Amino acid sequence: MMDSLDFFRKNQSIIEEQLGHTFANPTLLEAAFLHKSYCNEQKRNDLEHNERLEFLGDAILNMIVSDFLYKRFPTGPEGQLSELRARLVETTTLSKHMEKLNLINFLIAGQGEKKNLRKESIQANLFEAILGAIYLDSGLMTARKFLFAHFEEDMVALLTAPSRNWKAILQDYVQRKLQSKPEYVLNHEEGPDHEKVFHITVLIEGEVAGKGQGPSKKEAEREAASVAIQKLGLLT
User: Fold this and answer.
1) 200-217: per-residue pLDDT in tens?
2) What total of structural domains would you count in the chain?
3) Residue 61's pLDDT is what?
């Protein structure tokens, strides 16, 4: 069985073609696809996994999307722009972008993690790492071009879709079906005060129904409820 790093290297040109970007520094693309589980499993301290690129890609994504929304809605208040941005950068959205690229199977992951490749968080993290790698390789304009070349239609569709109160939808369903209420639990928070990221789990009768993260508890709860609704098949 071919090692996942060898498999990636054998197919790197295919990956670049799918992304629509040929890397001047191919090691950046490899780093974007390198999951920490592989480094841990192989005890490869000489390799840098993709968490730093993910961190950078998250910031680049937020900047590109913020600029896009600021110009698209010239009179939109800050609250509206923040809500729209949350829609465009949430884990579920980025996971769908990664599915559209159809590159998750090239993730360089440890054997134990390979069964989780379809998890939204893993796909979203890979997407952010790829964006970070493209930014470092060729600059902000190329990163922006990549995002809009592949996903502009999807982004516009999300913006024009009616806003949904995911928490209210989930609560209504749980109350009707189970005569109880969803419970939102703060797992942990990370980052400095001005860049906090909150991680929330929503429980239904004590069982994990969905997880979310965001720059506020409210947005993290909203994403957790959205994930739970998708898992329950309530989207129409």
Assistant:
1) 999 999 999 999 888 888
2) 2
3) 96
Residue 64 and residue 97 in contact, taking contact as beta carbons nearer than 8 Å: no
Catalytic residue among 128, 137, 221, 223: 128
Q: Report how far residue 107's alpha carbon sits from residue 129's, in angstroms, rounded to the nearest whole number.
A: 11
Q: What share of the chain is helix, strand, coil (3-state, %, to 5)?
A: 65, 10, 25
In the three-class reduction of DSSP (H, G, I as helix; E, B as strand; rest coil), residue 133 is classed as helix
Pick the closest to residue 86 from 219, 188, 224 (CA basis): 219
CATH number at residue 216: 3.30.160.20
Tell me whether residue 30 is one of the annotated catalytic residues.
Answer: no
> Which residue type occupies 138?
S
User: In whole angstroms, what separates CA 38 from the centre of its chain?
Assistant: 20
Is residue 56 assigned to a domain?
yes
Name the nearest CA neighbour of 225 among 183, 175, 162, 189. Answer: 183
128 is catalytic: yes
Instruction: Tell me the backbone φ, ψ of residue 28, rounded to 5 degrees.
Output: -65, -40
Domain of residue 15, residue span: 4-160
- Claim to verify: residue 135 and residue 68 sit in the same structural domain: yes
Residue 19 lies in a domain: yes
**pLDDT for the residue 1:** 60
Place of tokens 């809605």: 73
